[in-house]
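Exercise 7. Given the encoded structure of a 383-residue chain, write a plausible sequence.
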């Protein structure tokens, strides 16, 4: 028990982060001992598509009771019969080194994933019905090693995501507009989903927007392979948004040092290339916005079971090679990474603006107007 508690303390502030980008900045031996599985990759049977016909294979879907994605802060509520369908892939919530991939019934991993759905996926519940699968996610330690087992674990996790996506498409029908969203490991799988199932396919015409958040996208080497352009305006539909959040003084070298050593989807080095940076406050690339333009930052409760809205929220400004600055550090209850990396809060710091962004892009997609006002602001609460 003491050892497990020690491991938990080591990784609490790292919980949702793509470990490949923090590997070089932590004691490698300690991290390996605590987090990388020592067993061989086990794998398991491929999840058949019909497995995701079962309600219990989903963390969120329209017919699930106590759906965590339907959470909202005060003065907000989910849309009634929202017209879009949202496929959301949650970030890493499994840190155990017993397995390379999370068992579907791991209670701690599922409870943590539900926390992420409340703080992230809930931003889309006004305009869309949210579908978020359980999947045999790669454990956090898979991002801390270049062992072949780690890539096998990620490939295995993606197979579940793919099976869930195929069932999602059957469930929502052939014509319904779709929003794709993910964070961290979920964003990594979403990139692959775009490359393999959306790019160059008729399905691309149904995508309202794709939110690939908390994972770098090279404008030069990656973006052309994803089948959708970077969002150039706040009203544009059928495009990609992405951001990675830092407070000042920001040190994103833990990302760039590893990123510059990788190869893009075009087979060429990513070194020195710029990344997609959408300002979630404005919905535009390379932009700057003041705190007053942020209509609400989620302030989590101590037990992470709920949150209130701080109004105004944090400011935002794209800088450097494609990172988002929120200005001075803000107290959101911990979990801030070295370099003032606010990765865990990429969605929640801009919750209202992301909500408005999705509704605005849906309105453009359909050529109509959203049914509910998009700029209502709840009672101000100090941050």
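Solution.
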């Amino acid at each position: 028990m003491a050892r497990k508690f020690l491991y938990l303390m080591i990784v609490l502030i790292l919980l949702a982060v793509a470990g490949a980008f923090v590997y070089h900045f932590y004691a490698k031996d300690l991290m390996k001992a605590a987090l990388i599985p020592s067993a061989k990759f086990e794998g398991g049977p491929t999840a058949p598509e019909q497995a995701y016909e079962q309600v219990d294979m989903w963390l969120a879907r329209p017919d699930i009771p106590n759906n965590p994605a339907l959470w909202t802060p005060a003065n907000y509520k989910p849309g009634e019969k929202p017209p879009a369908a949202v496929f959301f892939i949650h970030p890493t919530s499994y840190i155990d080194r017993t397995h390379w991939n999370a068992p579907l019934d791991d209670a701690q991993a599922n409870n943590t994933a539900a926390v992420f759905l409340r703080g992230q996926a809930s931003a889309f519940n006004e305009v869309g019905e949210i579908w978020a699968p359980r999947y045999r996610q790669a454990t956090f330690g898979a991002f801390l090693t270049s062992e072949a087992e780690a890539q096998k674990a990620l490939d295995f996790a993606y197979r579940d995501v793919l099976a869930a996506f195929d069932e999602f498409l059957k469930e929502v029908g052939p014509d319904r507009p779709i929003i794709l969203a993910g964070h961290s490991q979920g964003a990594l799988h979403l990139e692959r989903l775009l490359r393999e199932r959306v790019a160059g396919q008729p399905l691309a015409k149904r995508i309202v927007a794709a939110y690939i958040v908390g994972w770098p996208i090279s404008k030069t080497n990656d973006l052309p392979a994803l089948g959708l352009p970077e969002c150039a305006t706040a009203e544009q539909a059928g495009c990609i948004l992405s951001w990675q959040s830092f407070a000042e003084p920001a040190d994103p070298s833990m990302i760039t040092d590893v990123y510059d050593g990788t190869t893009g989807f075009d087979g060429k080095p990513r070194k020195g290339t710029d990344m997609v940076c959408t300002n979630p406050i404005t919905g535009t690339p390379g932009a700057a916005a003041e705190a007053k333009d942020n209509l609400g930052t989620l302030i989590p409760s101590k037990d992470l079971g709920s949150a209130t809205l701080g109004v105004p929220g944090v400011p935002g400004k794209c800088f450097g090679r494609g990172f988002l600055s929120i200005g001075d550090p803000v107290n959101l209850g911990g979990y801030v990474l070295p370099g003032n990396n606010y990765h865990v809060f990429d969605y929640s710091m801009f919750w209202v603006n992301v909500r408005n962004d999705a509704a605005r892009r849906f309105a453009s997609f359909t050529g109509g107007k959203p049914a509910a006002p998009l700029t209502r602001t709840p009672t101000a609460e100090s941050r």
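Remark. DSSP finds seven helices and 14 strands in the chain. Students should compare their own answers with the one above.
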